Amino acid sequence: SVRVPSDDLAVELSGAPNTPLLLRDTEQMARQVHQLLHLAEVSEGHNYTFAPIQLGAVVTDAVDYLARLSAQHAVHVVVLPSRMPSPAVEADASAVFVLVKNLLENALHHSPPGSTITIALQADGFSVCDQGGGVAEGDRPHLFERFWRGTARDGRGAGLGLSICLEICLSHGWTIRLEPAGGAPGACFVVETSGGLE
Length: 198
What we know:
globular
């Protein structure tokens, strides 16, 4: 039987003079399709399986998963443990992984090389803070809108990552917000859970 080559391999074998551009466009389309599927999935409540989870463990998994991307961007990721023992929360572990991953990816795409992203665990949630250029006041109302794109360093965002984060938080009864601009550089997204399980 004959195997059909992957899209990337087909582009590389085509000998087209604009191969790097075609590969970038293919990657971008694949990312958009992947995020649209994620958005459709997280928008439907019946797709969730709730069970007690430890946020710290999910955060660690997401940081490990994106370690290569962090290295490519030359950005250091630090996880600060909660000062108090974090209680288990009733949540869908896969959805929370996507939530943390999307927030971390967003921070990575807006962080300059050599900077640090800090993920701080709290008793009632977590925050993801970067040292990028921050969010312009006029852009803040649009952050969680579908297909709205800010100015990421690499320009590869599909405009769906934060919308997916919002849907996941709403489905869990949690809140997500961008901290008000203060003296510190960058952006800081805060997720607050509705409390842990006793």
